[in-house]
Amino acid sequence: MKKTIGYYLAFICLGISTALLGPILPSLAKQTHTTIGQAGILFPASSLGYLIGVILSGWLFDHISGHKIIASALVFMLLGFLAIPWLPWLGLVAVVIALTATVGSMIDVGSNTLIVWVHRRAVAPYMNGLHFFFGVGASLMPVLYSFVLQRTASFAASVSALTFLMLPAAIYVFLQPSPQQPEKEESGSAAPINYGLVILAAACFFAYVGMEIGFGGWLFTYAQAKGLADVSTAAILTSLYWGALTVGRLLGIPLAVPFSPRVILLSDFAICLTGAALVVFLPGSTGLLTVATILLGLGNATIFPTTINLLERRMTITGRVTSMIFVGVSLGGMFLPWLMGRLFETSGPDAAITAILVDTLVTLALYLVLIFGVKAHKALATA
Question: Which of 123-137, 159-173, 258-272 has the highest mean pLDDT?
């Protein structure tokens, strides 16, 4: 359990870093003398860095002590966040954002892989717990950021306050021995990879992560642009989204045992579609936006960990497999937030938020193939 606690601490830090960009985007635009639309390039920069980290992680976690990698990544993330408020040019900010995303992806890939190696077939509740703590970090971040900003009027102080957990988390993880890949323990070699299932899973994550990060990243700016919230209320809405996602993942811990991944995923998408439809077809109301925000947070909550649980039943989860799947995570986090930024500037906030509904429908279609077609891959996965 000590190892699992380390992954949970690392995921709180990862949640903070993931949810940070949306609320600080207006400040970064002002700091670098650019528009919101131009500053939106930071989303694809972050995802590009994440992609680089994902590609590197596949080899690293299969050959090097996983805990040393995660601990080092936390330290580099801390240094990156301390530097961001002092950078005067958008291009330089993009480089640092990309580098923090690179090490962040190593935390993501590593924790998702190592927790499977620790708990194996009993991983489902622990996996939901891991992503619950991601939500803890993500939901605390906007409130803490707004609290410090309002009292200090200092962008640098507000960002720096968000890094307080990263160094202790790095030390804790570093001091724990790393688990070994189960298949190597048993046979000395890794099982063959089912590439068809890996590609399908990557496509599902591409669409899903775009939906999760796109809404969470642009909600703050959307609420202000529509005149539905001031800075404080927009921060609360953003925190509410990640908070609902956190509560949903907490509820997902006990639900992961009695309910199958198929039932959980279909329920998740029903909730997501309801929330996305509300925000698109009934705009202009802070109350309805709040309800939609909660629904989208709850609906998105268990999609990621449940998908990993589903895949773990059908194939061997290695560092390389997780890395290939997370390429879809990276590209999805790059594409939709970037597209929303372009739509926001060229067609307005309503067009940007409509992209969430369209992406939700695309994601559902892909997941239906994964959910009802996954049995067809079982023979290959277990051959």
Answer: 258-272
CA neighbours closer than 13 Å in the CB half-sphere of residue 276: 27
Nearest to 62 by CA among 201, 202, 194, 191: 191
What does DSSP assign to residue 282? S
CA quadruple 319, 324, 325, 331: dihedral, nearest 10: 130
Alpha-helix runs per DSSP H in 282-377: 286-301, 303-312, 319-346, 349-373
Pick the CATH number of 2-180+190-382 from 2.30.110.10, 1.10.10.10, 1.20.1250.20, 2.60.120.10: 1.20.1250.20
pLDDT band at 374 (very low <50, low <70, confident <90, very high): low
Say what the pTM is.
Answer: 0.69
If you count them, how many residues does the chain have?
383
Quote the percentage of the chain above a pLDDT of 70: 93
Give pLDDT tens digits for 76-114. 999 998 898 888 899 999 999 999 999 998 998 889 888
- The rounded radius of gyration (Å) of the Cα atoms in the chain is 20
Phi, psi angle pair for 89, to nearest 5°: -115, 140
What CA–CA distances, in Å, run from 383 to 189, 191, 251? 15, 9, 35
Q: With beta carbons less than 8 A apart as the criterion, state whether 288 and 233 touch.
A: no
Could you say which DSSP state residue 316 is in?
A: -
- Amino acid code (one letter) for 97: I
Which two structure tokens, joined as six digits, stand for 140? 């605390």
Q: Give the pair of three-digit tokens for residue 175.
A: 């001091």
Contact 25, 344 (CB under 8 A): no
pLDDT value of residue 264: 92
Kindly report which listed range (178-192, 195-209, 240-254) carries the lowest average pLDDT score. 178-192
217 within 8 A of 267, measured Cβ to Cβ: no
pLDDT of residue 191: 55
The angle that helices 2-32 and 90-119 make with each other, rounded to 10 degrees, is 170
188 is written with which tokens? Answer: 């000395």
**E strand or H helix at 257, and its extent?**
none
The C-alpha angle 311, 308, 178, rounded to 5 degrees, equals 110
Element (H, E) at 41: none
